[in-house]
Design brief:
Length: 184
């Protein structure tokens, strides 16, 4: 069985294939060929057992993500799971937040869970419920949708009436942000 990151990288190359060099959408990759080169090198390095290679791979992936490659959830997963990267919930939260704020349902699910449990960020029921509600509306996969609903039910048990008012206000005004704004 192939490691999770191998499958993720294959999926990334599929995501970037339709874009022509320098011909991306407003928030799409500017140079997908460059991202694919970084991805290929990072994939090779992640297979290594040498810490220097893994550090270099993470650096390549983070650079590609900062340049607009749609891999923010993948980076969050690498850091939150400690898979081929040192477990670091603060770094995971950084990458998940970029994905969540740009409208990615899985990024929203993961940020909701982090805010609920206080991993990498302070516990914040309002933000947890906000992201879990957003995720529930965006995620199509039945298993992930159930996961969002399970965590949402847990968060709701602890929320006050004031928390609910704040969540409703934020849900009514929430809009995805462009990557260019989130990456600055």
């Amino acid at each position: 069985m192939k490691p999770v990151w191998t499958v993720a990288f294959a999926m990334f190359s599929l995501l970037t294939t339709p874009f022509g060099a320098g011909q991306a959408g407003e928030d799409g990759p500017e140079n997908p060929a460059g991202y694919q080169i970084k991805f290929t090198e990072a994939l090779t390095l992640l297979e290594s057992d040498r810490i220097e290679d893994i550090d270099r791979a993470l650096g390549l992936l983070e650079r590609a993500a900062r340049e607009g490659a749609p891999i923010h959830v993948i980076l969050g997963d690498l850091y939150s799971r400690g898979t081929r990267a040192p477990r670091d919930f603060q770094k995971a939260a950084r990458w998940y937040l970029i994905a969540a704020e740009s409208g990615d349902g899985i990024g929203q699910l993961e940020m909701g869970k982090l805010y609920l449990d206080g991993r990498g960020v302070a516990i914040n029921l309002v933000m947890s419920i906000l992201y879990l509600e957003l995720a529930r509306g965006r995620i199509r996969d039945a298993g992930l949708k159930r996961e969002a609903e399970k965590h949402l039910a847990r968060a709701k048990r602890h929320a006050s009436l004031e928390d609910w008012r704040e969540v409703k206000k934020r849900l009514d005004t929430w809009r995805p942000k462009p990557l260019s704004e989130l990456l600055n």
